[in-house]
Design goal:
Elements: E1 6-10, H1 14-26, E2 30-34, H2 37-46, E3 51-55, H3 63-73, E4 79-83, H4 88-96, E5 101-104, H5 109-123, E6 132-135, E7 138-141, E8 146-149, E9 152-155, H6 158-169, E10 175-176, H7 177-184, H8 190-206, E11 214-218, E12 222-226
Parallel strand pairs: 1-2, 1-3, 3-4, 4-5
Antiparallel strand pairs: 6-7, 7-8, 8-9, 10-12, 11-12
Helix pairs in contact: 2-3, 5-7, 6-8
């Protein structure tokens, strides 16, 4: 990270709140945890945050009302709603309030971290400090877009490098197509989806010198880099 990213997490389920807080801290973020909407609003008013994670069903002040008040103080800070609700009308209300994303419980921490990274990346506030990735017998230099195998070096395009970075950071895990598309292109349209398939094919070709490496297509879900 270029700077310390501060996150305001407002979650009344303390067990879940502590789990999210610990995982975000482990990922390098500074996190303040509040247990209700009023406490969260006071925390936001008293400090500067780079991103907000608000549960919708909060005591004293619900997440939507909290977001409305936050937007009066700061119109640009990213807001992600965490909720057990999955009704379309709730999502629409959240986005009308200026939410940047909406994640439905239960969710995996990997998914939450990827969504946070995607938003911060679009804001220009996030840059990983993990510059070199070992992928089988290859070494991938994230910043220089290079893939090295022995004496041979392949220069990747920016999008190829971004896709490979996402897959290598989640090595052995399935990464949803939607997440890759939103992180690399900013939306998950059909045409961008076709482009993603082309880039995946190219990456498979670049990595074919090591038979122990595979980018698996999990049909209808996403991709997994197996090493």
């Amino acid at each position: 990270m270029e700077k310390e990213i501060k996150i305001l997490l407002v979650e009344d389920d303390l067990n879940l709140g502590f789990v999210i807080q610990d995982n975000l801290k482990h990922a390098g973020f500074k996190v303040h945890l509040s247990q209700d909407g009023k406490e969260g609003l006071n925390a936001f008013a008293g400090d500067k945050y780079d991103l907000c994670l608000f549960d919708v069903m909060l005591p004293k002040k619900d997440g939507f009302s909290l977001a409305e008040d936050v937007r009066k103080m700061n119109s640009t800070v990213p807001i992600i709603f965490l909720t057990a609700k999955s009704q379309t009308e709730d999502k629409i209300r959240g986005f009308k309030l200026g939410a940047d994303d909406y994640i439905t419980k239960p969710f995996s921490m990997d998914e939450l971290l990827l969504r946070i990274e995607a938003i911060l990346k679009r804001m220009g506030d996030y840059k990983t400090s993990k510059d070199l990735h070992n992928i089988g017998k290859y070494q991938f230099d994230v910043n220089n877009y290079t893939l090295v195998f022995g004496e041979a070096q392949k220069k990747l395009t920016k999008k190829e490098a971004e896709i490979l970075k996402i897959l290598s950071e989640q090595k052995g895990k399935v990464v949803e197509r939607e997440l890759i598309l939103n992180m690399v292109w900013g939306d998950d349209s059909y045409f961008n989806g076709r482009s993603l398939d082309v880039f995946i094919t190219k990456l498979r070709k670049y990595l074919n010198q090591d038979e122990g490496i595979a980018i698996k297509n999990i049909h209808g879900v996403g991709f997994s880099l197996e090493d």
